[in-house]
Specification:
Layout (H helix, E strand, L loop, with lengths): L1 H25 L5 H23 L2 H16 L2 H33 L7 H4 L12 H6 L6 H7 L2 H18 L4 H21 L3 H16 L8 H25 L5 H18 L2 H14 L5 H14 L2 H17 L6 H17 L6 H12 L7 H33 L5 H9 L2
This protein binds aspartic acid.
The site of aspartic acid has 15 residues, from α17 and α18.
Length: 420
């Protein structure tokens, strides 16, 4: 416990020092020495850390979902837990985007902005996928290719099917189940070992981002940036803290203290997927959730639950409409709520993906996709903040589901804090 808390402190120190160093460096003129630090050392250390946890994601998602399903025991229990999880994920995403739309209509983040001045960059929209294609692609042609490509939805599908089949087979599947259970323990041990790199990795990633983006890039879009941050904060306080308090009868502040290590890694990597190994470890070891529920709900959440992303998209829609002077009728708001909720299911939790799916949301209400160019400059910082919201939503849901199923240990949830 002692060691865990000191690791949390070291990660937070890395985060604070990284932000300070990065901001200071953003004011230095570009010179060889500065570039050597940013593109050399910080890139190296940050990249090593991200790769070290990312390499575990594909095996972890497959193995942990498989084990999660098997340890739930029977299919009806799986159906019940799966139903609760999906209901929570969809409902909170719907609420998130509604909240974001209300906040933006009140704040009017795009008012008074000159479009010509803002649109200096061309948008780099990598790909747009139709909803039908996304749904169709949930079933892979080749599961090995799905894993090699890291296609999360496909991996989840294969893992669910394999896990359900093993449960139905029963005794004869025991050797397979034993093998995956021991693989799961080995992977979690790897996560714990690699977490010792976290303070340095977090420092390097944050320093590089802040030095590259700098505060200056944010100034013209300050109102937009602050509106997104405010809506994220509101969602975390109202919905997550409210749910923990009212549904779970748990102290929400303790949750945030327990969950801090995962939040710092989510913030610095801007990727729910990359943070997943740490999220699982934190929710199990510090929040008191059983392995079976954590390994079922969290990999699902990292892929299909993105409240923070939905919030950014809600604010961005209103912002772009205002900047271009296009009025949005009420029906457009409903379309945005639906499309953004669906978009959050179909996309993996990797950096910047929210901006790509934003094109789908904008198209659904006939807003110019070029509008994305306006917000691209500040998106990295917002990506970090919304990733924190995304993984927090996954964790809150997992805790509530675990509690309702008697798979939650309140002593662990409360103990971590009192010893800190
Ligand atoms: N980076 C976010 C995540 O991984 C997704 C996004 O909004 O771009 O959760």
């Amino acid at each position: 416990m002692e060691q865990k808390n000191s690791l949390t402190r070291r990660i937070l120190t890395g985060l604070a020092l990284g932000a300070g160093t990065g901001l200071a460096m953003s004011y230095l003129p570009s010179c060889n020495l500065r570039d050597l630090w940013l593109s050399g050392l910080f890139d190296l250390v940050g990249g090593l850390f991200i790769n070290s946890i990312r390499m575990l994601v594909v095996p972890l998602v497959f193995v942990s979902l498989f084990c999660g399903i098997n340890s739930l025991g029977d299919i009806s229990r799986l159906g019940r837990i799966g139903g609760k999880t999906m209901a929570f994920y969809l409902l909170t995403t719907g609420l998130a985007i509604t909240l974001a739309l209300i906040v933006s209509v009140v704040v009017q983040p795009g008012q008074g902005l000159n479009m010509a001045e803002l649109s200096k960059h061309e948008p780099t929209i990598a790909s747009r996928q139709s909803m039908v294609k996304t749904l169709q692609n949930i079933i892979p042609n080749n599961p090995v290719a799905a894993m090699a490509e890291g296609n999360m939805l496909q991996i989840i599908f294969v893992a669910l099917l394999t896990g359900i089949s093993a449960t139905l087979v029963g005794g004869r599947a025991k050797p397979v189940v034993d093998l995956f259970e021991s693989a799961n323990a080995v992977i979690m041990k790897m996560v714990m070992l690699l977490m010792h790199l976290a303070p340095y990795g977090v420092f390097a990633l944050i320093a590089k981002t802040f030095a590259t983006v700098g505060l200056d890039a944010m100034m013209p879009l300050l109102k937009y940036t602050l509106t997104v941050l405010f809506a994220l904060l509101l969602h975390m306080t109202l919905i997550y803290m409210g749910a923990l308090k009212l549904i779970g009868r748990l102290n929400p502040l303790k949750f945030f203290r327990n969950f801090l290590p995962a939040m710092s890694v989510g913030f610095s990597t801007a990727s729910s997927n990359s943070t997943l190994p740490v999220t699982i470890e934190t929710v199990e070891m510090r929040c008191g959730v059983s392995g079976s529920v954590a390994s079922f709900c969290l990999p699902l959440g990292a892929t299909i639950n993105m409240d923070g992303t939905a919030i950014m998209q809600g604010v961005a829609v209103v912002f772009i409409a205002q900047v271009y002077g296009i009025p949005l009728p009420l029906s457009s708001f409903l379309t945005v709520i639906l499309t953004a909720t669906m978009a959050s299911i179909g996309t993996a939790g990797v950096p910047g993906v929210g901006l790509i799916t934003l094109s789908m949301v904008l198209e659904s209400v006939n807003l110019p996709v070029e509008g994305i160019a306006l917000i691209i400059g500040v998106d990295r910082i917002l990506d970090m903040a919304r990733t924190v919201t995304n993984i927090t939503g996954d964790a809150v849901c997992t805790i509530l589901v675990a509690k309702s199923e008697g798979e939650f240990d309140a002593t662990v949830y409360n103990a971590n804090n009192s010893s800190e």
